[in-house]
Amino acid sequence: MRPPHRFGADDRAIEGLPIRLIIALVVGVASPAIMMSMLGGIGTLAETETDVEIDPVTVDAGRTTSVDLTVLGDDGNTVEDATVIVMSDDAWLDSAVKGETGSDGEVTLRLDPTLRQGQRTGTLQVDVVPPTNTDYVDDQSNTEIVVIEN
C-alpha cells in the first residue's frame, strides 16, 4: 500500500502553470480586441463621403455673384436636402450664407465677398451638413471658392 500523498509536498502542479496563465491572458485579451475592431468597422462601411462641385470656382471681390453648388456623394449620386454653408476664410463675407439642395442636389447662393486691403486673393470655406437619417457624412474638407481682386 502506498503512503498517502501530501498535497503540500507536491511541486509538480506548478511546472506548466505560469505559461498556461500567460497564454490564457493573451488569448483572453486579444480575442475581444480583434472582435471589437471588426465590429467597429461595420458602421463605417455604410458611410458615404460628400463633396461639392462649384460653378464658378473663382469669384470677384466686391461683386455679388451667384454660385451654383452641387452636393455629390462619393458614390456619384447627388444629395437631396443637404445644407450647404459658405463662410469666411481668407476672404470675408458679412455673414455665413446657407441654402438647402433640391432634388437635383443643387443650390444657388448669392455671395458678396471682400478682401482685406492689399490682399489679392482669398478663399471662402464650403461646408455640407448631410440630411439626417442617411449614410452621408462630410468628414473631409470640401473644395473652396477662390476670391480674386477685380
UniProtKB/TrEMBL annotation:
Domain (DUF7382): give its ranges: 45-109
**Statement: the UniProt record of this protein carries the keyword Transmembrane helix:** yes
* Keywords tagged on the record: Membrane, Transmembrane, Transmembrane helix
**Transmembrane residues, as ranges?**
21-46
Pfam families under this entry? DUF7382
According to UniProt, the name of this protein is DUF7382 domain-containing protein
Q: Which organism is it from?
A: Natronosalvus rutilus
